[in-house]
Amino acid sequence: MAVEHDRDIVSAPSELMKFETRHVPGALKLSQEMGWPYRQEDWEFALTVGNGLVLERAGQVIGTAMSWNYGQAYAMAGMIIVTGSAQGGGNGSRLFDGLLQATDGRNVLLNSTEEGLALYKRRGFTAWGRVLQLQGPLTVAVTQSARNDVRQATVSDLAAIQAFDERAMGMPRPSMVAALADAGKVVVIERAGRVAGYAIARKFGRGYVVGPCAAESVEDARLLILAQLSRLHDQFVRIDVYAEDGLGDWLESLGLERAGGATAMVKGQRPVSDGSAHMYALANQSFF
């Protein structure tokens, strides 16, 4: 009887609909099928700050796709999954096309796995960079720099952190930054009374993620990352960084291991950072 029931599910028509809270358990099951480390809390956070679509068949979630709008010009796409039994039948294209339509003509950015590259290229996306994923138990004792310009952020720093993030990203995302800051611990670099960089560490996946981290130089980015890592000894830590910035080898020297990565892609125009501000580590590969 179980076999007949499974056949009924596979043959039933699928329905594209808005991603709602009730779909989270089904989405979690999909990410577990893919071997992704998301917890239910990670899905709930993503849905709180973004929008999404699901494909549902016979009451079961068989696909997800999410987006996060940053101002009127940009959107980020991610958490795009189709269950194995529903792949190859146009479901991925149906989901992604619906997601693109929902971004209302914005320039769309995403980080693609190898499996997704062909679909995204067919939709007009081009590659512009490479994201490295480094992770593992932090067994190396990491000491924070003795410099006094790195400090714990306070509530009164939020507006300055949001403004610095916009400079580094080249697009506004104040709600996302506020949500990330609320979910984690924030450190900043203060120079001449102004915020000149920040980094957030929060619970995610198998342990903690350090990111986003934005700064005015790679040296400052290292200081901010060290300040966060100094409090995470023996914890499982993940950091996603851009290959072009050269932080990968340094993070490996601290005991983290490379665990794959992603291709950074854009459909339309990439945002341009303002001045020396630069984003060095991502909050995660789905919503930057």
UniProtKB/TrEMBL annotation:
Pfam families to which the protein is assigned, alphabetical: Acetyltransf_18, Acetyltransf_7
Source domain of life is Bacteria
Where does the record place the N-acetyltransferase domain?
Answer: 14-147
Q: Which GO terms describe its molecular function?
A: acyltransferase activity, transferring groups other than amino-acyl groups; thiosulfate-cyanide sulfurtransferase activity
Write the record's keywords in alphabetical order, separated by commas: Transferase
Q: Where are the transmembrane segments?
A: none
List the PROSITE patterns hit by this protein, alphabetically.
GNAT, RHODANESE_1
What name has this protein been given in UniProt?
GNAT family N-acetyltransferase
Task: Please give the organism.
Answer: Mesorhizobium temperatum
The opening ranks of the lineage are: Bacteria, Pseudomonadati, Pseudomonadota, Alphaproteobacteria, Hyphomicrobiales
